[in-house]
Structures are given as structure tokens and as C-alpha cells.
Amino acid sequence: MTELSTADLCDQHRPEPVDVMTDSAVAIVQPGLLRDFGGRQSFHGQAATVKCYESNVLVRQLLETAGHGRVLVVDGGGSLRCALLGDNLAALAEKNGWSGIIVNGCVRDTAQLAGMQVGIKALAPCPLKSSKRDPGLKAVRVVIGGVQIRPGDWVYADLDGVLVSKEQLSL
């Protein structure tokens, strides 16, 4: 997978100064919101989405399928009460060809996640596992860090941040 720098993508696709308001095809997820947990620090791909609250049933279901380099975006409602992803699900993502996972919620098994070749960003760690009650919704619009993400949108992530675009970006 070719690594793409979010800073370089911004320079190319959002060249206007920060104080100039324009409509842009590239949205920036709120800086500082997400922390890095996976072994791959730079990742990108088309989004697959899940909206769930304190239940990771659909997260597992999607990660059991072929990822084809996609990024799973999980809107967990920002809950810090339990983890929606741990080492077992991350191992599925790695095995099945997912480029990365972004969680608006928590992850666990962080020492193991750091050694896996999948990008993982989340709000925080939490040792408690999720419930399996309400599965949630898949293939829906989600909002993370003030940015709407729809299935098929392109997600670009690295240590500098997360970008979202309706179209594939290049340098």
C-alpha cells in the first residue's frame, strides 16, 4: 500500500489559507480527537461504516469479511465505558485485508494492537469488553469529529490526522 501524507494531501487539495472560508472536497476530522493504537501509522481506503453503541456485533461481522484495503469507520457514539475493538477483532482485520479501523469509542489490548499491521485510531483505551445486545446499523452515514463519513468515501489517516473525501485523492 502506498503511503500518502495527510499534510501533503492538504497542500494539494486544500491549498487555501486557514483564514479563507471555501467549500472543500476534503474534510479534516477534529484534530487531537483520535489516538493511534495500531502498528500501521499511515493508512487509507474506502470507508465501510458501522453505527453502534457499546456493542461490537457488527464490527466483528464486517471484519470477518474481505476488507480489500478498506477502512472500517465505527461510530460508537463516543462512549468511553467499554471497548468496541480488541486484539481478536484487530487480528481479523489484519488477516482479511482491512487497511485500518477508526473508532469513535474505545479499544483494548493496546500492547497487542501496536504490533498488528493494521491502522487503528480511537478515542481512548478501556479494558472492559462491549456487550453483544443491540447490533447497531451498517452502511450508514456516521459523524466523527465533525465530519460526515458515508460508505464509499475515501479516508486518509496518519500521525498528523484524518481526512475524508468523496473522491480518491492523489499527489
UniProtKB/TrEMBL annotation:
List the Gene3D superfamilies.
Ribonuclease E inhibitor RraA/RraA-like (3.50.30.40)
Please name the GO terms that the record assigns under molecular function.
Answer: 4-hydroxy-4-methyl-2-oxoglutarate aldolase activity; metal ion binding; oxaloacetate decarboxylase activity; ribonuclease inhibitor activity
Record keywords: Lyase, Magnesium, Metal-binding
Family matches, as Pfam families: RraA-like
Q: InterPro entries per the record? A: RraA, RraA/RraA-like, RraA/RraA-like_sf
Binding of substrate occurs at: G86, D87, N88, L89, R108
The reaction(s) annotated as catalysed by this protein in its Swiss-Prot or TrEMBL entry are:
oxaloacetate + H(+) = pyruvate + CO2; 4-hydroxy-4-methyl-2-oxoglutarate = 2 pyruvate
Q: Which cofactor does it need?
A: a divalent metal cation; Mg(2+)
Q: What class of enzyme is it?
A: lyase
| Residues bound to Mg(2+) | D109
UniProt-listed Enzyme Commission number(s): 4.1.1.112, 4.1.3.17
Q: Which domain of life is it from?
A: Eukaryota
Q: Which GO terms describe its biological process?
A: regulation of RNA metabolic process
- Family note: Belongs to the class II aldolase/RraA-like family.
What is this protein for, i.e. what is its function? Answer: Catalyzes the aldol cleavage of 4-hydroxy-4-methyl-2-oxoglutarate (HMG) into 2 molecules of pyruvate. Also contains a secondary oxaloacetate (OAA) decarboxylase activity due to the common pyruvate enolate transition state formed following C-C bond cleavage in the retro-aldol and decarboxylation reactions.
Q: How does it assemble?
A: Homotrimer.
Q: Note the PANTHER family from the entry.
A: 4-HYDROXY-4-METHYL-2-OXOGLUTARATE ALDOLASE 3-RELATED
For this entry, the protein name equals 4-hydroxy-4-methyl-2-oxoglutarate aldolase
Q: What is the lineage of its organism?
A: Eukaryota, Viridiplantae, Chlorophyta, core chlorophytes, Trebouxiophyceae
